[in-house]
Amino acid sequence: MILNKKIFFPSLFVFLGIIFSINIFAGESNLIVKETEQLTQPSIYMVLPFIILLLLIATGPLFYKNFWERHYPKISILLGTITLVYYLYFLKDFHSMQHIFIEYVSFIALLSSLFVASGGILIKVDKKSTPLANVLFLLFGAVIANIIGTTGASMLLIRPFIKMNKDRIKPYHIIFFIFLISNVGGALTPIGDPPLFIGFLRGVPFFWVIVNVWYIWLPTIALILLVFYFVDSNNKMNTDSSANIEYSGKIEIQGGKNFIYLVVVILAVFIDPNVMSWVPSLAPFPLGIREIIMFSIVYLSYKNAHPEILKSNEFDFEPIKEVAYLFIGIFLTMVPALQLIANFAQVKHELLDTTTFYWATGILSGVLDNTPTYLNFLSAAMGKFYLDVNIQSQVLEFVTKDDIFLRAISVSAVFFGAITYIGNGPNFMVKSISERGGIEMPSFFAYLFKYAIPILIPIYLVVWLVFFR
């Protein structure tokens, strides 16, 4: 489906206008907001819009698919608007809405730029699909996820992975792709996954992650790949159809200029006033220099992409449109839940130990966006030492004081993002691309109970027993 410009672009300008207005109100009433935040907490009932949206995402494609596909943008925006009105009108809390809108714009800017830039790259793998070849492919994707991010690696590799397995493709191929490349693989660097990048912006040293996580990452990747190899070895479907085909073993890459766009996007990630003091803030304008660069890459990479490559990749904007509409609802409706969790964690931080941080951060990262979950539990962990997550020098002090808590939070936020489709942004995009390629992906609950829980939870339990108990 071609992107509906008559609807999408006017909606985008209206949306940016709303953010601009909220930024102005938030700036003009900063003292009032701070006083309000100290006195008010969202009602527990305001968690209902998030729960409703989560249930609709889970049941819509399964029980009322046609209705859901036609109306999910309206439903997501409606439920998000309920939360927006509650915060602006009843709580007078402009700051929370300002913060979540800015995070959402950054989120969409990064995902859309990586999605479009990678869509202009065609990778042809002329190699027979075997369990070992698939294991090596997934391992390669897990490694480069730390260089170009889980989103970049997912968008770059999902189409060649599907084509490589075209004679024997099954849903589990895509699910293990999500496990390894869209999530667990990116646990080694701040570039790999958004929660780790937020930690970097807050003051966690760039190389702290790889030094402190590699020995957890490596056995986890190995265990997941071992399970995949066992499952894939028992997949004999359609192997006869390719029995007489000769493979050259070559890998062909077209659209190499788009790698330049990918590099620009990755470098733009660091163009932030919190990282580089010389970078100006454009507030109250809703976009920063980083986001302007990323949206420019969306335009340039799509305009200059070779039409034949886009056609071969079956490229269209439907996957990113689905993510954009669903996650605006998710980002807004999850604010009350996150604030209630953060308040509890801050008040009861003395009761929280490494085990609690590992499992609580992980489970909530699976059903909430893992980036704010990471930040809230990092704040709670620092609260144990009476440190402030908003002060970079204190974050560095926390890292050097006792980093076992940070290690538990970092690992679980990234690893558990694979538990559901909404745990991490690339999950939904990979699912959407796969479905448009004719693969019948499992529903939300089937993914959770048939694959994620029986495969990942035992592995994560081993990780906890060995490293965090």
Structural commentary:
The protein is mainly α. It has one domain (15-468). Helices cover 70% and strands 2% of the residues. It has 19 helices and two strands. Strands 1-2 form a two-stranded antiparallel sheet. The longest helix has 34 residues, at 131-164. The model is unreliable at 30-37 (pLDDT under 50).
Supply database-style keywords.
globular; 469 residues; mainly alpha; two-stranded antiparallel ribbon
Which SSEs are present, and which pair or pack?
Elements: H1 5-28, H2 30-39, H3 48-63, H4 65-90, H5 94-119, E1 122-125, H6 131-164, H7 171-180, H8 194-202, H9 208-233, E2 251-254, H10 258-268, H11 289-303, H12 307-312, H13 318-347, H14 354-367, H15 370-383, H16 392-401, H17 404-415, H18 425-436, H19 444-468
Antiparallel strand pairs: 1-2
Helix pairs in contact: 1-5, 3-4, 3-13, 4-13, 5-6, 5-10, 5-11, 5-13, 6-7, 6-9, 6-18, 7-9, 8-15, 9-19, 10-11, 13-15, 13-18, 14-15, 14-17, 15-17
Summed up, what is this model?
The chain is mainly α and 469 residues long.
N-end to C-end Cα span: 49 Å
Mean pLDDT: 84
How many strands, what sense, and barrel or not for the largest sheet? 2 strands, antiparallel
Structural class: mainly alpha
Beta strand count: 2
What is the domain tally? 1
| Low-pLDDT residue spans | 30-37
Oligomer: single chain
Tell me the strand percentage band: under 5%
Could you state the order of secondary-structure elements as H and E?
HHHHHEHHHHEHHHHHHHHHH
Biggest sheet, spatial arrangement of strands:
1-2
The percent of residues in helical segments reads over 70%
- Per the principal axes of the C-alpha atoms, what is the gross shape? globular
Count of discrete alpha- or pi-helical segments spanning 4 or more residues = 19
**Rg value:** 22 Å
